[in-house]
Amino acid sequence: MKSLLVLLLLAAGGAHAARITTPATEDHPPSFFAPLEDIPGVLPWSLLSKATTVKAKGGRMVPKYTSEIAALDQTEVKVQGYMMPLQPGRKHKHFLLTVTSASCPFCLPAGPEGVVEINSAAPVKFSYAPLIMMGKLTVLKSDPMGLYYRISGASLVAP
User: Fold this and answer.
1) Are 155 and 135 in contact (CB under 8 A)?
2) What spatial distance separates the first Cα and last Cα of the chain, rounded to whole Å?
């Protein structure tokens, strides 16, 4: 099975297949790429992942944020992650940035605490490599899609 996976990755990702696979741990879901390392000045996923989901009145599930996360609302931040396009194409202005690489085109690679919706000022070319995006972070209170975080007016800092 693993050799079939290697062949599929080589066909789909070329040189990126050399980074096969990191097993799931308590802090990281399984991924084809090594876990992202914290970078000074870049918002760490370990902080964003402290958000939880609670049941609100009427049985609806809503996010609950730590005071540290809530303080980030409407601030300029940098976030590193993997691009998950929402539309076909080579360049994207609206996409998801995720804590781990996507391993299935039909599934999110993380829960809502491991995903940031990106609305970029300029199109960003798709890459399997991690990106660093910068923009204004909104900590979402009740997003209809179940997202916790959104960055607007984003720009690419590093491929």
Assistant:
1) yes
2) 32
Residue-wise pLDDT for 28-86, tens only, equals 555 556 778 999 999 999 999 999 999 988 888 899 999 999 999 999 999 999 999 99
The structure's pTM equals 0.77
Contact 103, 109 (CB under 8 A): yes
What pLDDT score does 20 carry? 39
Residues in CB range of 6: below 8 A, 6 or more apart = 17, 20
Q: How many CB atoms lie within 10 A of CB 147?
A: 15
Helix (H, G, I), strand (E, B) or coil at 144: coil
How far apart CA 31 and CA 50 sit, in angstroms, is 20
For residues 69 and 87, give the distance between their C-alpha atoms in angstroms, rounded to a whole number. 29
Q: What radius of gyration do the chain's Cα atoms show? A: 16
pLDDT in the model for residue 118:
98
C-alpha–C-alpha distance, residues 19 and 151, integer Å: 28
CA neighbor of 28 nearest in space, from 88, 111, 107: 111
